[in-house]
Fold each of these.
Amino acid sequence: MNSNRIIDHPVLGSFEDRPIIRFTFDGKEYEGFQGETIAAALLANGVRTLRVHEESGSPRGIYCNIGHCFECRVTVNNQSNTRACMTEIKEHMRIESGKLQPAPLKSEAGSAHLPRTYAAFAEKHPTRKDGDLDV
Amino acid sequence: MEDIIICRCEEVTLQHITETATKYKCSAREVKLRTRAGMGFCGGRTCRPAIDTALATITGETPGHDIPLKVSPPIRPVSLAVLGGKSNE
Ligand code: FES
């Protein structure tokens, strides 16, 4: 269980045994030590991807590890947007990764070609003026 | 190099920022509004120095307080539940 942990550190000393905490991540059971954060416990279990970007689906994990960037946000016991790097694991915690979300404005139905800025709109409709509603 | 992601929350690349700043000859704030760089979940607290630095290189704009990129309080994102008095547990 300790293969991914630093168990002997020149400054922090040696890793003392602590009670084992069991939790689930996306339905799968994992074990960590009391006092570890979700991010640390999962990393020690070899899990680096905590969520995917909602729109593109590219994988995300720990980035700052100090609670600043929210890159590590997961859902903990139904509480969404919880930072994995700031939250201690507790017995029977249910953790869910962040998933890809539907992006209706970027579908293939042609909406991707809608102008996304005023400048693009003006380029597309040079004769329209501000306030014309029948776009 | 150019496909380096500057804003992770909104996945905005250095290339996108460079193209926008060059095409519209605009301020860091306008780049933010056009590309969404710095408008994501973290509130721009992570990528703001990178955007400022990129703009300093591209347009020569030095980060100032006249038309800033705009960072507003609170210092960190908090949920409405916390603002309403619920504990942060
Ligand atoms: S990794 Fe940055 S907030 Fe958790």
Amino acid sequence: MYLIFMGDVTLTVDGKKVTAPAGTLLIEACKSAGIEVPSFCYYPNLSLQGACRMCLVKIEKMPKLQTACTTVISEGMIVTTDNDEVRQARKSMVELLLGNHPLDCPVCDAGGECELQDMTFSYGAAESKYIDAKNHKEEQQWSPVVYFDRPRCILCYRCVRVCGEGMDVWALGVQNRGVNSIIAPNQEDHLDCEECGMCIDICPVGALTSGAYRYKTRPWEMKHVGTTCTHCADGCKTTLGVRRCDTGMEIVRGDNRDKSGINGDFLCIKGRYAFDFAHHAERLTQPLIRKDGQLTPATWEEAFELIGKRFAEVREKHGGQAIGVVGSTRATNEEDYLLQKFARVVLGSNNIDHHRTADFPALAAALSGKPEMTASMRDVFNAPAMLLIGNNPTEQHPLLAWQIRNNVRLHRARLYVVNSQPIKLRRQAASSTQIPAGSEGKLAAFLAGDDSALDVLVGAGDSPAPDPSTSLSAGSRGCPSPHDWIALREKLRGEANLVIIFGSEICGNNIPSLVKFASAIPGAKVICLADYANSRGAADMGLYPDLLPGYHRVTDAGKFREEWGGVPEVRGLTLPEMVESAKAGDLKGFYVVGANPIGRFGVDPYAFSHSFVVVQDMFLTETAVMADVVLPAANAYEKSGTFTNTCGDLQLVKKAGEVTGSKSDFEMIVRIADAMGFDVRKLVPFGRTMHFDTGQSRGVQSGEADRHAVWLQAQGLEPKMSPFDPMAILDEIQRLVPGYDVSRINLLAGNDQHTTLAGSGPGALQNAELIVPAQDDLFSSGTLGRYSRTLNSVIENHHKEPAETDVAAD
Amino acid sequence: MKFSDQFESRFAEMLTHYPTKRSVLVPTLLFAQDEVGFLSDEVIHELAGRLDLTDLEVRNVISYYSMLTTKPRGKYNVQVCTNIACMLRGSDELFEHCKERLGIGHKGTTPDGLFSLEEVECIGACSWAPAAQVNYDFHENLTPEKMDKVLDEYKKKGTQ
Ligand code: SF4
Ligand code: SF4
Ligand code: SF4
Ligand code: FES
Ligand code: FES
């Protein structure tokens, strides 16, 4: 609720003095004083409904009981939340709700975590005056994701509001009247929507259930692990419910009902339901070695020994530059850091690259030495104004879109959209302008003060039909006139604390232009949008042939040289250059960790036929099938470490699921270094932490050891006893990568920590052609999407043909 | 889709009465229903488009009001009040009589498409109970005999 601060108001609730800002709702004021007022339809940040009457309280001088969820507090108000009258009212409300509600909690999917069940226990009557038969209706499936069990619905309208107000989808409605009211989907008997599942998780009862989770288990039978989503680059926190199964730990649910993390209770379909790739039947669970032309199951020892031998041979005979390494945008920061260190220190080569989807080196270069100018995902919810250039966040960055929409709705923020397409977010925009595709860079130049860029912007050439809802008045060609553009620029210049968000349309030299424009606006910040869960991390960790972690140039390795004892200074090969080198017969080894360059870049698979190719992946991708050794990898839900989202927010990744027979990329990299005869202590700084007093384990001071351990961990000083402990590398990252020196305890507590680019290395201008957008939409997610049953069934249901670009790199 | 000029001028005028477009939905639905006979999918889609609403929202509103219908009705919609005052003065008998005479039940329509029948709540004519409403016209102090005459008249009008 957006409130103008008008001072505090003091009231009395159950004899307690409560003070809260004027404008606060009574139910919230009670909550802040630790007094629970039961509610169903009230939901913070959604419009008020006043439908369920559960929150009735007695307010002195008011004739009838009042709904605490719609009453605004006032000075001197005297409120009673618990007397006979109120209790009786609540009892009657529950009785009414149960009138048609089945009393079969033991078989209901929500049993054990149902608000109606809890309320009935706390406030309900043991018996009912109703003797009529209950009105039963069969359950309906509305989409692959959403199921509706009508008799369980208590008509709180939370689902309707979150879908409309929160998601701006408006796929749910209420039909009929009174007891006959029902929740209805937008296509009569099914849904055509974003399948986010917000409605399901917000439903207080078991009326809306998900195809992914329903009737599989009980909430108390799962272990709940809070981690970070592995799909897009927004970094939603998701709580995975896991359960033991034949092959390890199975993920059965994803949600964020505790509303922790940058996303509050938001998750899109991918974060909530697309964890099922982990248990796809085609998942690799054994190393494969090519024997007589066939990929044949082998033992881990055999595989590591072979890789170690062959890589060492190439290094001895041809030098490290004869091996190319490709890193992952879905591996953790620790793994990516370790991989580039492996390339540079073990192989002695800068031949390392990754699938780039945004130009972070240019951003680092533009921001280097500037005060903090990157916005966090949280800032997007609070900024007074936002400028969005390019991209379509509704499809590609669902959390970002949610933050933008809700900032506009709840805080009346102003959104300015400039895009070549009529993207959906223009519905929230104060101003939306369509420009010819490919002219985004000109916009950056124009904003920075180059008026000659106007020619392109005013629609010379074959611009698409302008967006009819454009709020810049149309010029003669139906496009904004130069005058309109100048007015827009002036307006933006006046928007203090503007957050500028841009897609991969803006890269290279256009980034400094945009940063120049932003620098002139007080408090302005920027967000550069990349596509995969750890795209930003991969860039920050130095998966570049010319850049070390933190965008330091390989030619100026400084502290890295000191720490690692030598860094090759010649710039390495980019991915396309590796392909060329392989074709020419120079690249003798190719090591691919969690990427699919063959599938993605349309590389001739025979390019590598003379190289020794090692691939770490979950599935036999186009790249894996042509490998000499394939190692079955764990995914991000099965390992620990950290991810950095596209804004630079660092978050913890925690191990939730497990598939027997796979290993984390981290462990495999270390094992390969070991098999090459490299001293892994020089790769992972483990085993050299301080010795500490483990304290007393009995008597008055028992528990001391635990307290020590907690303190040590909070300082990052706990002993790292294993070369496979990613925390040992995190220590090094925090020490060496500028901006990553964030609070360890906050990170461990599951909070997002914003890293800054202000202190980063000088970056470097990159070839823009190396940036290849992932082209994922709401229902696709690279390789993970191809193996997700949920996403595929939704795509089928929407009768969408899989796009040509379906083949993914990561 | 095409509405009459009269509808269009009314619609345009109504838009000026309210601060938001969606506010004109209810009266517009009623006018559209009077003109088309019922609220077809086509009408719903058209009005949703004009008022920046989803089809679903328009359906939700229609389903709330018993005077609005998405199914074709007879030319004359006979609405017999069976609420308290009318009930005390014999509306049950009256309603039964209508059912028999027209050969249809509650919410039914005669095969010739001339009459529909509906049992409705108080229509505000209690002082002259029992009462019924045919389209927008009231008929009061009814008996089965009087009702027959009323129906005869409509039949004549309708088949002329
Ligand atoms: S799944 Fe999401 S988009 Fe679909 S109806 Fe539910 S809230 Fe709306
Ligand atoms: S389906 Fe659930 S969320 Fe929606 S109105 Fe019913 S009880 Fe509330
Ligand atoms: S918005 Fe992105 S990070 Fe969040 S749940 Fe969806 S895919 Fe995952
Ligand atoms: S919570 Fe107040 S009426 Fe529902
Ligand atoms: S009761 Fe029939 S008109 Fe009022």
